[in-house]
Design goal:
single chain; about 65% helix; mainly alpha; about 5% strand; elongated; 10 helices
């Protein structure tokens, strides 16, 4: 803005010249300001018929204080002290978030999950998430409630404090895999029933029979993979003790 911010004295002049019937362009010329600056000042503070210099000045100071208070501090790059490239970490977080969104997760929920996922602790408080994501507490609360409902995180009390923190662990994808397995089992049962009713010697019945065989193999493979993963995780955890 030419000449810097409007002062209380500037506003006193604006109020006086408005009462004399001067337009925004003329007031701006006298103050050395663009007419658009004068128009915004007057419009946001009651309009030409109700503009008050002192009230406008106080309202501007209040808005400035409120804006300053609501600006969150710059979020730290998680775990940047472990020899990692901070920019590479940030870029990966953004790409991982985009991938989660492509998989069907709402964007805010994806941002919260990615933020938790890249931390070594796998645990952050609501305040941590607000700071790192630059979002409102309400946005974090809604996202956490959704993720908790899906079994993708859990709440736990911070030791020695009244605050809660949100935690993910190595089994984060198991609830989703179990749900997929249950759906696949339901499709197996329906396909087997369809083959029985339609008759496996008919084209329709044969189609259902073939589908049941494929889906049954998928379910068996799912269970084997999950069991193998559990055994591998147990062996790694035992090796760390």
């Amino acid at each position: 803005m030419p000449g810097g911010r409007l002062t209380n004295e500037d506003r006193q002049h604006i109020a006086a010249w408005l009462s004399e019937g001067l337009g925004y362009a003329e007031i701006g010329r006298r103050l050395g300001r663009p007419a658009s600056t004068i128009m915004r000042e007057v419009t946001r503070n009651g309009g030409p018929d109700d503009y008050g210099a002192d009230r406008a000045h106080e309202a501007t100071r209040h808005r400035a204080r409120r804006h300053k208070q609501t600006q969150p501090p710059a979020p730290p790059i998680p775990d940047s002290g472990r020899g990692r490239d901070p920019q590479a970490v940030q870029d990966f977080k953004e790409s991982f978030t985009a991938l989660l969104v492509q998989q069907g997760l709402p964007r805010m929920e994806a941002r919260v999950l990615a933020c938790l996922y890249i931390t070594d602790s796998g645990a952050l408080t609501a305040a941590d998430l607000v700071q790192r994501l630059h979002v409102s507490p309400a946005s974090v609360s809604h996202a956490v409630a959704f993720l908790e409902q899906q079994g993708m995180l859990r709440r736990e009390r911070v030791p020695g404090a009244r605050r809660e923190r949100y935690v993910i662990d190595y089994e984060i994808w198991l609830p989703s895999l179990r749900a997929s397995l249950q759906m696949n089992d339901a499709l197996v049962a329906a396909s087997q029933r369809g083959a029985e009713i339609l008759g496996t010697t008919t084209p329709a019945g044969a189609r259902f029979e073939s589908s049941a065989e494929l889906l049954l193999l998928v379910s068996e493979a799912f269970r084997q993979v999950m069991e193998h993963w559990r055994q591998s995780l147990a062996a790694r955890n035992a090796g760390r003790q």
